[in-house]
Amino acid sequence: MEVSGDLLANLNEATAREMQVSMQYMMQHTLYSGRRIPLENTAHTSKTQKFIASHSPVYLPGKTLKKIAITEMRHAEAIAERASNLGGESVTQPRFIRIGSTLKEVIEIDKAEEEAAITLYNKIIFRAREEGDSITEELFQRILKDEEGHHRIFMDCLNEVT
To answer: What pLDDT does 116 receive?
Structure first.
């Protein structure tokens, strides 16, 4: 199937983004579990106690943040494979990783990343539909659902720490 250079460029942008957030979320998870990022002196609800690190009583998704990171890596793999199947060359470098220095900042950064993904992936879905690439369209519709779920998680987390 022939697709435009613009669509392939969007797929590479999406791959770099997915690699970035996968590494970013995993580093946030590990840094919080080791307490390398200072915790605010605020009470956390039992719900928030599970968010960031699976070994930590802090709220960023303990197990949740780690699971999101793994999901994002699966997205990167699927998108890179699709780009390759379309004849493109996949990127090998993630975008710049941002960790954050407080729990609130971490969640705000991650929420913004998910918002950017939602915007980009809607654009890719539209472009793929325009170009008659139903496989890419369906792939990104599935990924978009995950990203919207991640965004909801970060919004809920942000409400817990503000």
So the answer is: 98
